[in-house]
Amino acid sequence: MSTEPETTQKAGPGSPDPEVDPATARDPQEGTPGGGRVPGDEAVTGGEAAEDAGTGNDAVPQGEAAEGAGTEGAGTGSGAGSGAGAADSGAEADGSAEADGSAEAGSGRVFGAGAQDSGEGSETDVESAGRGAPEAGAEDSAGGSGADAGEGSDAGSGSGADVGAEDAAGKMSEAEAELAAQRAERERIERRKAEKKGPIESGAKLSGRAADLLAAVRAVESGEKPAAAVFTPPEPEPAQRRAAPEPVRRPGPVTAEAAAVPAAPAPETVQAVRQVLTAGGAPESLALPVATALGEGAADRLRADPWQLLHIAGVRPEQADGFARALLGAESRPDDERRGRAFTVWLLEQAALAGHTSLEAPALTAALAQRGVPDADAALQSALAEGEALVFQDALEEPGAPAPTPEADGDEEETGEERPVRVLVGLERYALAEESLADGLARLINSAPGEHGPAEGWERAAGAARGSAGELIRAVSGHGLVLHTGGEAARAEPARLLAGARALGLRAWAAAHSPLGRDGFTELLRATAAGEGAPDSGRAPQAGGGPAGHAQAGQAGQAGGGVSGGAESHAVATVAGLLSGAEGPGRDADGALDLDLLVVLDAPQLDVETAALLVESLPDGARLVLSGDPAVLWSAGPGRVFADLLAARVCPHIASRLPDPGPLGELVSGIGVGELTQVAAPGKEVVIVPVRDAGEAVHRTVQLVADSVPRAIGVPAEQTVVITPGHGGAAGTRVLNAALKERLNPGPGRFGGFDPGDRIAYSPVPGRTLPGRVVTADAEGLHLSCSGVRVVVPRERVEASVRHGWALTAHQAVGGRWPAAVVVLPGDAAQALSRPWVYTAFSRAGRHLSVVHGVEQALPRAVAEVPARERTTRLPLLLAAQAAQAAQAAQSQERAEA
């Protein structure tokens, strides 16, 4: 279709701050009066970090915008209030945090309204709208500077929430149960790694190993010594499996106290912290999180080192500086060792929110200097000495060169040739997870899979399947780790594999990223077992959000970890449910998952910690298949596990040859290769609705969801999802959800802003979003139904973890499919768009896609020119080292046998 040139809305208060240039970053010690105060009573807490945990650009070299950690967003506030990642985040290019990773700063309050009137516009009708993809010939947009900014943030919790949290300390939510189970797994990893790495010496002054370590790092960076002469990698020790406690199964509602959680801090500890916070001018609402984070003696620790406040999510460096000045007076100096150490850890945490598992040492010291730390090297040295960060050196090889081996390192010393080396600094938790993941993957790759079924049985199953499905079955029969890539239609191939493996007697399970993906794959398994092939992608059971059949299936499958309806349906769980024990086969006597084959769907959503826990939980001889679409957004957490494995080429990779059908499949496939083309849509599968400004975008979106799509396409409003780049802004999820609630489910919002029947997005932990509906509310909390499972959210957590869910961000929607999707692209969204974001948003539609288009030329430009942002990880080099060691061991064995 053709569109007339439009003038998009100029960036206003809802637009994000531009990306911060490190060269012009302001010294936080030079803040304006009041600018050094910590967040107000509305400070970010709890699971809201999943939505609004933004990041600072200064943690990324060359002014790169930090990517968000959870499902997009940034807390905010002025002088006395700022959310996580407020002032420094830029609009996302790869959509990892989408526009909400950018700053919602300068608004003055965390809960400021900031919503513009949607305005009135002419009626939108799918029947009269143009069809096909947006034209590339539209004029360049003169729109706003960013997509994601709201005047407020839903991330905070009032002071009353802290009191409620103390009263409810003895209770256990779903999020806490899941975190407790994952914490137990993580402790196993740390115990294994403790045998490889001794403790780092600590102390106020450098001595011994810490001083030697920093001297070695600086010698390598300066070129005084070759890397091999300085760093000697420890000899790897064989991994030892340790028994894990049997997880508690939850057949009923999620509110049950399923496992033990750490005790809440004593009331006297909280009160003592509250007094210190008051003395420093910080809000008392931070008392509980500070006491929880710092533990016993928290008040004394905080008074002795006020920059410890940076351990609390949502606190910014300039606010910690203001708190320190109030407590220490003249003793608070920019060169304070405690300040430099805290800033180092904070920058590494921001890098993790951006997806990096570590940072290069020069980039980190440059970011410290930009933050006003006079001696960045000394600050890094102090953090290493105290064990708050770890340093690594990774040898870099020329393309095509063999991976380094111990013998090669010896040859290097003899010849004097120096290998290029990269010095990285990271937090211990991610370093341990990444190394544990590499060890576990090497175990799968280098060990023969268990003898499950006769070889002729596997071949018979492969022969019955056609094309790449047969190739997948053959690869899995002989390998412990297999990668599988493809679009939505390609999910039929893992379904065929799972059905064939179970027919051979294997304990085979599949795990999806979200309940929507789990239930959709269960429906696909049913169709495969019935010989019907892939079900219609637009059918209600595959969609998320509200079909009755979908909810009934979820209710029936609570006890079995999947959806009822036959033996095959009990073989599907969510990754989180599998790890926590709420779903899946349970654990064997050794603490490993009681299965022979695990197929992980939506593999690009695996962050490094989740992947490590998953691989560590597999028994010896098990097979693992990682399946997913590499073109979608990467994980909300740090790492890019699936992409790193694809690049490493250490195991078989089966690329599906099954294309997504119809006009939607053609459109999305083109976006995946960087082309936004017009497609013929005779059944109105794709409709473009041009808008002039954000107000018109909101008005047209409501018309599409409530009237046009149900009337012209036949998809009811409860089966339609709205996707927009961010939570903030004049057409973000907050404004859109408010308008959609007023039209579809008006009410007073007497339950914390919610009414029975409201669609919601519940985030039990950062990075996970569960679409559902409000059932009721009582003294126990807000009662939700998420994919048919009853969930009770305690009152003190509602504000931090529950949003309205008619409109979602692309990161929240990933892993689910709906019969119809309305993608809203207001004029100020241009800077937030990227190829992965557009691909993810457009591919959420099963039958119909409407694009509310106000970004003009920015859309085809993003698809063609803006790929995913790179992330700094160590996994590729760790995998290469493991592969080199395995090859060397094989050669030694061959020589011994000869």
List the helices and strands and how they pair.
Layout lengths: L48 H4 L77 E2 L27 H9 L6 H21 L13 H15 L4 H4 L36 H13 L7 H8 L3 H7 L12 H12 L8 H17 L5 E2 H10 L5 H10 L4 E6 L10 H10 L5 E6 L1 H19 L8 H10 L3 H11 L2 E5 L6 H12 L4 E5 L2 H15 L18 H9 L15 E3 H6 L16 E4 L7 H9 L6 E6 L12 H8 L4 E3 L6 H11 L13 E5 L3 H19 L7 E4 L9 H12 L14 E4 L7 E9 L2 E6 L2 E5 L1 H7 E3 L2 E2 L1 H4 L4 E8 L9 H8 L2 E9 L4 H8 L9 H23 L1
Parallel strand pairs: 5-9, 5-10, 6-7, 6-8, 8-9, 11-20, 12-18, 12-19, 19-20
Antiparallel strand pairs: 1-11, 2-4, 3-4, 13-14, 13-17, 14-15, 15-16
Helix pairs in contact: 3-14, 3-21, 6-7, 6-8, 7-8, 10-11, 10-12, 11-12, 14-21, 14-30, 15-16, 16-17, 17-18, 22-30, 23-28, 24-25, 28-29
Architecture overview:
The chain has 898 residues and is an alpha/beta fold. The protein is built from 30 helices and 20 strands. The strands form four sheets. It has a six-stranded mixed β-sheet with strand order 1-11-20-19-12-18. It starts with 48 loop residues before the first helix and ends with a helix. Mean pLDDT is 75; it is low at 1-123, 133-171, 199-205, 227-262 and 534-569.
